[in-house]
Amino acid sequence: SLSLSVQNGSDRAADVEGDAEETPLVGKACELPAVVASTEEKCVLEETLHVARSGHGTVTRVHDNPSYGSNSADFSTDLSTRGLRLQLVRGVVTSAVFLLSFIDHLMVCTGVLYHSGLECITHLRARGLSLTPGGIAHQGQGPRAKVVILGGSFSGLRAQRELSRRFDVTVVDIKDYFEYTPGVLRLFTQPENLGNLVSPLPTARSNLVVGEATSVTPTHLKVRLCQRGRPASLIDGACSQKLPSSEDDTVMLPYDYLLLGCGAGYPCAPIKPTSSESTLTCRQDTWTAAATTLRTAADVMVVGGGLVGVELAGEIAEAYPSKRTTVVTSGGALCSALPPRVGVAVRKWLAKHGVNVRFHSPVELVEASKGLVRLCSGETITSSVVYDCRGNGTSKAASLLDASSLDSRGNVIVDETLQVIRPLLYSSGSGIECPRTNGLASGGGQIFAMGDAMVMPSCTDLKLGHTAELNADVVAENVHHLESENEPISAALESEVPMRRHAASLGKYPDAAVGAPIAPRVFCVSLGETYGILVFNGIVIEGLLPAIV
Ligand SMILES: Cc1cc2nc3c(=O)[nH]c(=O)nc-3n(C[C@H](O)[C@H](O)[C@H](O)COP(=O)(O)OP(=O)(O)OC[C@H]3O[C@@H](n4cnc5c(N)ncnc54)[C@H](O)[C@@H]3O)c2cc1C
User: How many structural domains is the chain composed of?
Assistant: First the structure.
């Protein structure tokens, strides 16, 4: 910023300063003030204005003032001093901008490293390895308490890792492998990549039962086995009790703590595996078939302009640039749950890659098998293939619990400690003996829910893999605390047992996981193989780097 001082003899008039206003020079014509009299004075002022213009600065414009006659005005400028001041100001501003941008990048990098670290651990854990010991070891004298974890994915595997040293842990899943859901959209175009996105479920420190949970009693989880030929030792390890021969493919797993990490359904097949894909071979067949359907389709419609819809459209547009691809969305923006800049960038990328986006088109019905979509307006649109990406469906735990534990969308309601609220369970009717109880009022085991399977009314977190893992951290911590209250221990071990806490002071989400009232928002939107948008809280960066991340 430059200012001109106006001199009237020796008197620097305060009036002039009072009348002065800051006028941006960039892109504006700047008239010399009428008070400028002589040619020499004009030259000085012209020069000053030139400096200000070239420096994108502002200059103080002096209003006409009748008290200063045109001949009495006397301007002088000390260009060298002002130039120095300008440089100093520039230097300070540049340093400040550099510092801010450095902090900004540092935060992004920290977020990226944190997220990558979590995912790395997930992969290691899925392979039965671990970077750190899995929580507190068993210290009691009696048998270890039984923890049954339903779901071997982000939340379930995190809990398995944290609890398996101390508890008798059994993981139940419909399949014997972990599949990395955030990466599966590329399998629509590159099904041969499945091997890079999966790993076997762990069996080293916990039991694995491959089967579909069908109901929950206050003391047992009922599971229909998916792989009858599985080694009996794995199932026996879970201390299951076989039911009578009419149900010989069913086992009852007793629990002291039941952790529901079974996720939610997704309307677009085959994004979530089903019980008929319990082995990797079956799953590979499914993805190969899905890729063939897409490859041979004349045109494609993706319903839903959220994270999954736009990523799928991106994969298709990049792999099949000549295929007519349309995204149908109800609102006027894409990825509306994310910062607006993300939606704008996604829109630009899709437009550049020839994807047509149909905004303001709320959908009433999708019949993917018929390639048909009916809009709320009554209009029906068709396409060779339709992918329904309108978000998560009902919690997979909905059919296991009483309706009083569910919200209107079928999600399991939990309190801040992630315990299921009002778990009125179906009676087993099996006459099976109860396992050791926790001395809880209900007389049964304790039930928690985490990840996509549950809803915590006071929480607005996006349903993400990383959030599911944070949920599991809190659940594991609370299971440890509850067990510390119940575990019979010798006097010698008393001092070594971790701090005993009353149930009323159990850890709450997210504070117990991240030490703050809100969890960090870290996620990446991938559009094809070379473009991504990374979001860390309010910070958004786009381009190749996020795509690599
Ligand atoms: C296409 C897509 C892309 C995504 N991209 C990202 C992303 O980039 N980043 C991100 O952080 N998040 C992403 N998400 C969200 C993320 O995948 C989920 O939030 C996360 O998987 C939830 O983990 P979870 O452990 O709660 O449940 P899930 O991952 O859904 O796992 C549930 C497990 O339970 C098993 N199961 C379910 N029912 C039963 C039953 N009755 N009996 C036995 N086993 C059962 C299932 O087989 C499964 O293994 C994406 C989701 C989708 C659908």
Answer: 3
Q: How far is the CA of 181 from the centre of ligand 1 (A)?
A: 6
How far is it between the farthest Cα atoms of the chain?
Answer: 115
> Which pLDDT does position 103 carry in this prediction?
76
Q: Which amino acid is present at 320?
A: Y
Q: What is the pLDDT of residue 523?
A: 86
CA of 307 to the centre of ligand 1 (A): 15
Range of the domain at 45: 6-77
Check which CATH number belongs to the domain holding 405 and give it: 3.50.50.60
58 CA → ligand 1 middle, Å: 56
Residue pair 487/145 in contact (Cβ under 8 Å)? The answer is yes
Q: What's the pLDDT score for residue 43?
A: 52
In a domain, 211, yes or no: yes
In a domain, 113, yes or no: no
Closest by Cα among 155, 146, 123 to 397: 155
Residue with the nearest Cα to atom 35 of ligand 1? 151
Tokens encoding 140? 């009691």
CB count, 10 Å around CB of 367? Answer: 13
Distance CA 69, CA 147 (A): 93
Tell whether 438 and 457 lie within a shared domain: yes
My answer on whether 181 and 246 are in the same domain is yes
Ligand 1 centre distance from Cα of residue 381 (Å): 30
Gap from CA of 59 to ligand 1 centroid (Å): 60
With beta carbons less than 8 A apart as the criterion, state whether 241 and 217 touch. Answer: no
Domain-ending residue, one of 77, 96, 114: 77
Residues 409 and 491 grouped into a single domain: yes
Ligand 1 contact via 435 beta carbon (within 6 Å): no
Question: Does a structural domain hold residue 94?
Answer: no
* Eight-class DSSP state of 406: B
Residues 383, 411, single domain; the answer is no
Distance 472 CA to ligand 1 centre (A): 13
Q: Please identify every stretch of the chain with a pLDDT value under 70, giving residue numbers as ranges.
A: 1-81, 105, 108-109, 111-112, 114-141, 227-248, 422-443, 487-504
Q: How many CB atoms lie within 10 A of CB 51?
A: 17
With a 6 Å cutoff on the Cβ, whether 273 touches ligand 1 is: yes
Question: Can you list the positions of beta strands (E) in 392-538?
Answer: 412-413, 446-449, 454-455, 522-527, 531-536
Q: How many Å apart are CA 288 and CA 191, to the nearest integer?
A: 5
Asked if residues 167 and 146 have their Cβ atoms less than 8 Å apart, the reply is yes
Do 405 and 507 belong to one domain? yes
Q: Is 308 touching ligand 1 by the criterion CB < 6 Å?
A: yes
Q: Could you tell me if 408 and 306 lie in one domain? A: no
CB of 410 sitting under 6 A from ligand 1: no
User: Based on the domain organization, do 386 and 399 belong to the same domain?
Assistant: no
Q: Is the CB of 451 under 6 A from ligand 1?
A: yes
Instruction: Say what the ipTM of the complex is.
Output: 0.99
179 pocket-lining for ligand 1 (C-beta < 6 Å): no
- The total number of residues written for the chain in this structure: 549
- Which residue has the least CA distance to atom 26 on ligand 1? 451
Distance 266 CA to ligand 1 centre (A): 9
